[in-house]
Amino acid sequence: MVSFVDEVRLFVKAGHGGNGCVSVRREKFKPLAGPDGGNGGDGGDIVLVAEPQVTTLLAYHGRPHRTSPNGQPGMGDNRSGSTGEDIELPVPVGTVVKDADGAELADLTEPGMRFIVAEGGQGGLGNAALATTKRKAPGFALLGTPGFEGEVTLELKTIADVALVGYPSAGKSSLIAAMSAARPKIADYPFTTLHPNLGVVQAGDHRFTVADVPGLIEGASEGKGLGLDFLRHVERCSALLHVLDCATLDPGRDPVSDLDVILGELAAYPVPEGQTPLLERPQLIALNKIDVPEARDLADLVAPELEARGYRVFQISTVSHEGLRQLGFALGEVVDTARREAAAAPVAERIVMRPKAVDAVDFTVRAEGGSYGTLYRVLGAKPQRWVAQTDFTNDEAVGYLADRLARLGVEDALVRAGAVAGSTVVIGPGSGVVFDWEPTLTSTAELITAPRGADTRLDENRRATRAERREAYFDRMDAKAEARAELEREREAGIWAADHDDDEEDGEG
């Protein structure tokens, strides 16, 4: 027997991107013909696809871990690595995808809808793609970025036009079996139905789906019984049919009291924002089991009271099929009315896609204090991706990263945030990548050690002419001749004596 699962936790791990290749082309008479390292392939995505043929999340209950292939690294001779294959996971229509914190990511309400739940990593560029007119032979390549790895929750909310609600053993499963081709399990004990059952009803020109929701009891909205787990399946229904048992043998129960309990539980259940509350939707009442004489008498007794409350009441029997035709046509009219209202409802506000501004900032810099002093954290998709692509064992790759960050404006932002040379900078959340910041003079004029109002980068650096070099040479020669003459005058004046004079005096002695 196939079990029904309507909520699972799915652990997904998308493929990592392949690393770029560092290679130099070598051939006869061309020992260094230029870089030819290929790019790495992208990692495979994990995609959820809404399939009408899938009715349960059971496939992910036993196998909650799903992984997509990695991208292959690039190779020489300009050969790119292969891309990891995408993994498609079929889920029932009506599946809601939530992240680990419970925030809704997607609602797959239509057949064929697709949602990338885990995006694969980006492949790194090879040194052939990094070559420029100024960097003709890069000695480095970019690394592939890791794919998404995390946990998501899949929650199934049945999509049907009419929801059958009522106490356990009220005859909901028998009713859906009598009105449609569905064949749910039917037995004479409470909580026979352990999962919602769907059936398609054809009443004349009306065609609609009916959902048999497991029985509700008092306190279901607070977690009692099975109702709390399955009340979510009522959210998407446009109409409610209260199935009341007129032949119950439980003491203290009757159709009116059962209806009051169910209404209280429906009122206590919070629907998502933007949806109509459950009790504000069209509601009909079916007094079931009138094939029993005592039940028929009770139905005749309570029907006027329920009609006085404003409900349309139908006395039915799932055994003799009495009253089912009238009930089917009434439900079809309610469903058609709801569909027309939905079609006439105002169209949702148009979403306008605007391109990002040219001067939009792709990162943020904030100062964080700690026991070891102030550090400056850089957060942003680009800086974090660039750091993940950098091979920190290659000095040229680290310099390339510094140039990219400088062009992005990270250094200017660090200066505005109060960073100085030697400050601790972290790129990314958590521990991230930590380094001591050494600003470059090309982007941080505020840190240049020069007199106030002066900028050494603006000094003229022109080449001296031949006449200027000749004049400078003669000046040096004149200075040397003057220095020799000064020494000679000092010797003649007896201020100091030459070394050979001292040697002669020592010889005569």
From TrEMBL:
Domain OCT as annotated: residue spans: 355-439
Chain residues that bind Mg(2+): 173, 193
A Pfam family the protein falls into: DUF1967
Q: Where is this region: Disordered?
A: 63-88, 488-509
A single GO molecular function, which one? GTPase activity
Compositionally biased tracts (Acidic residues) = 500-509
Per the record's keyword annotation, is Cytoplasm included, yes or no?
A: yes
Under HAMAP family, the record lists:
GTPase_Obg (MF_01454)
Q: What does this protein do?
A: An essential GTPase which binds GTP, GDP and possibly (p)ppGpp with moderate affinity, with high nucleotide exchange rates and a fairly low GTP hydrolysis rate. Plays a role in control of the cell cycle, stress response, ribosome biogenesis and in those bacteria that undergo differentiation, in morphogenesis control.
Q: What protein am I looking at?
A: GTPase Obg
